[in-house]
Amino acid sequence: MIRTVRRNRRPLRVAALGAAALLALSACSSSAGSSSKKPGSSASASSAGKLSGTVTVFAAASLKESFTTLGEEFEKEHPGTKVAFSFGGSDSLAASITGGAPADVFASASPKTMKIVTAAGDASGPPATFVRNRLEIATLPGNPDKISSLKDLTRPGLKAVLCDKEVPCGTAAQKALNAGGLELTPASYEQDVKAALTKVQLKEADAAVVYKTDVRAAGDKVEGVEFPESADAINDYPIVRLKDARNAEAAKAFIALVRSAEGQRVLTEAGFLKP
Amino acid sequence: MSLTDGAGAAAGTLRGGPRRRRVRMSGDRGVPLPLLVPALIGLAFLVVPLIALLVRTPWRSLPEQLTSAEVWQALELSLICATAATAVSVVIGVPLAWLLARIDFPGRGLVRALVTLPLVLPPVVGGVALLMALGRNGIVGTYLDSWFGVTLPFTTAGVVVAEAFVAMPFLVISVEGTLRAADPRYEEAAATLGASRFTAFRRVTLPLIAPGIAAGAVLAWARALGEFGATITFAGNFPGRTQTMPLAVYLALQSDPEAAIALSLVLLAVSIAVLAGLRDRWMTPG
Amino acid sequence: MIETFDAPADAAPDGLDARLVVDRGTFRLDVALAVAPGEVVALLGPNGAGKTTALRALAGLAPLTGGHLRLDGAELDRTPPESRPVGVVFQDYLLFPHLTALDNVAFGPRCQGTSKAEARARAAEWLDRMGLADHTGAKPRRLSGGQAQRVALARALAIRPRLLLLDEPLAALDARTRLEIRAQLRRHLAEFEAVAVLVTHDPLDAMVLADRLVVVEHGQVVQEGSPSGIARHPRTDYIAQLVGLNLYRGEADGHTVRLDSGPAITTTEVLSGPAFVAFPPSAVTLHRGRPTGSSARNVWRCEVAGLETHGDQIRADLTGELPIAADLSAAAAAELDLHPGTEVWATLKATQTHAYPA
């Protein structure tokens, strides 16, 4: 077997083929319909009545619960509009956008994945950070292993799972471990944050490092344990209107709603931090 | 049309039979268009993606990609696990196929349907089902853990279990078909010569159905090598322990498509090499 | 069902003593067989008569639903096939295709626990006796039909069976090989000291190979006896056809047998009560007009139903007063200008008939 000293990690670069391949992986729901007819004065989320048609939002999986709530509010506020969501891994979503998937808004879970879209020139302007997410340790209900710190996860015999280093939650977890000067050999590097959480919910793993929002969304099936190192690995969530948006006015209005006081209330309730 | 003639001649040569210059059945009448067009589309549909993979392969950086320890680790693990899963499938799948083919018991049709279910089940569902059964908290796994201290998830053995679960039906179906086609009277002849049912199976039936077992094992091996969903769900993903090639390809695709293409190429080459090698030796009759 | 009282076991003689009852849906086999050691019995019957079922029951491959099965005094009813001292030569031999002739023959001794070397030595000896010493290493697919048949026989004999079963042993062979193998098989069967039962639908095979015939029709034994006895005194249409005789059943009264269907046949034998009358087709003479000067005592008006060549003869199937098969030379047939539908008169001398009690 050949071993090279140099670990071969290439800089992030999404080739066109990769994007095309990702298109097949990501479930892309596109129902972008009518275009905006009137120039809107849509700085405020309360500007009702002037919008119509469908606005298509590609958003990180962790935003599912809060964005769905906001989508319903948006449709109520602007009768005649419809918000179509495609939730998925930020990487996959970014790749499908650069691959030409029809979307109006992109809300990603990391600046890194957002960069894929901006670097390809698909964003209409600079993205804005609308929330931040913090890591938490998810343990079994009642925390039977008495986990109180990130260091506890390194205990021998304890089965902890992390997200794979390739996905944002895994990158963040690695950053937190580095900040604490800890070395952790997990039972598995799961392919995304939900998979990591599921392993704890099924009691296959004793703990997982996931987002605070995921712990909250899982209800009483897991118990969250905060840890100080998570401060060093806070994820910014950027949002942007896309250049090729077919419903630019509605897209602007939706972003405004997300960033409004009401939007922030819904998001912080779900466990997100204000930017 | 020369297309069919060429194919016929090639087939004749492959079988080692007499070389015929023309395929008499098709003669000079050619292939009807309503068959030819869909056939060519079908061919293109299967082949073009593979060609695309070759076209877009980063040939220049390929040596660098392929010499990384991670690739070899994943490949080695894939080959070991697929082979182990195939061995497991043969050891328990062949007797199961024999049972289905030779013993008439109530509910046999239902059992056969259950055996083939993993063929149509989404592998991720299979992985979840395996967690429910053999996970640390599963209905069987609980006892494996408390009695023997064995837990399968997140272990290489777990990968083998997941792959065998998905791959074994291929073997069972293939072997059962061969058994049904084989003359059961050979077993009767063996019985009249004093062979117990097991001796008859071991010394007569098994050699007779060996080509069917080989074909089934190749199918199962190929399926196990490409297994993704059940493996990542049941066994997780840890380099060197449970990260097989398909998992490595998928995760590399998240951030490094070139690496993913390189890995895919390796997997493709290994599959082709093994299938071609086995085909010559086992899968052609005579 | 007929109740039979089994003889006490201590009185059981050597050899085979069986009553084979197998119920299979609408078909019922009920055959009693008693065969002494050294005797060769042929089960003869048409296709579907139950011969092969009887053979499978003897081998233990088909379970008995009634009756009994004793071999050399030992009960075998519940014994699985692998534990019975029974050797079988199957119709298409069923030689194991992946084993050489030698290993096919050594298979049985190996299963009986003989060491590999000794089993092979014994197998080689058997093949040598069969004149196959040069073919020990050949796979079955390289053997001719006759060679395969002898390997199958050697394989069955190598387990030293107390009962040898042969299912249509010559059916798979072509006519020329058949003649030769039949003679060889007859020799081997004559040397065999235990019970041999063979199943065949070919009367010639049965008569050449067997000491005694058991004729089975519709799952029942219809006639039993020596080959010559059965050939002379057939008791069913099937056997009569097999041995090439016209056969009728009726009530005898002196020199006359009045057939159930009406006409009477004059015979030389003097009998009374139920009787069979048999005569060969060649004994019948045909005429276009009513014969006047014939000394024949039997004259019937018939009609030609069909004609076919039968060796160098023409066989005429006649209907009318009496259904008869008549053989005549091709020249005679041309002279009489016979066609289907032609009206003819058939005469038969009493001296050509053979009557016996039914």
Describe the structure.
The complex is a heterotrimer of chains A (275), B (286) and C (358). Chain A has helices spanning 16-25, 64-77, 90-98, 111-119, 168-179, 193-201, 212-217, 248-259, 261-269; strands spanning 53-60, 81-88, 105-107, 128-133, 135-139, 160-163, 188-190, 207-211, 223-225, 235-241. In chain A, 33% of the residues lie in helices and 19% in strands. Chain A is built from 9 helices and 10 strands. In chain A, the strands form 2 sheets. Chain A has a 5-stranded mixed sheet with strand order 2-1-3-10-4. Chain A folds into 2 domains: 53-132 and 236-269, Periplasmic binding protein-like II (D-Maltodextrin-Binding Protein, domain 2, 3-Layer(aba) Sandwich), CATH 3.40.190; 135-232, D-Maltodextrin-Binding Protein, domain 2 (3-Layer(aba) Sandwich). The radius of gyration of chain A is 20 Å and the shape is elongated. In chain B, helix 5 (108-120) crosses helix 8 (156-181), helix 9 (185-192) packs antiparallel against helix 10 and helix 10 (197-225) runs antiparallel to helix 13. The longest helix of chain B is centred in the N-terminal third of the chain and has 34 residues, at 69-102. The model of chain B is unreliable at 1-24 (pLDDT under 50). Chain C has 358 residues and is α+β, with helices and mostly antiparallel strands. Chain C is built from 9 helices and 18 strands. Chains in contact: A-B, B-C. The interface between B and C is medium-sized, with 18 and 23 residues.
Summarize the structure.
Chain A has 275 residues and is α/β, with parallel strands linked by helices.
| Radius of gyration based on Cα positions of chain C | 25 Å
Q: Structural class of the secondary structure composition of chain C?
A: alpha+beta
Poorly predicted runs of chain B are 1-24
**Greatest interface by residues involved:** A-B, 38 and 39 residues
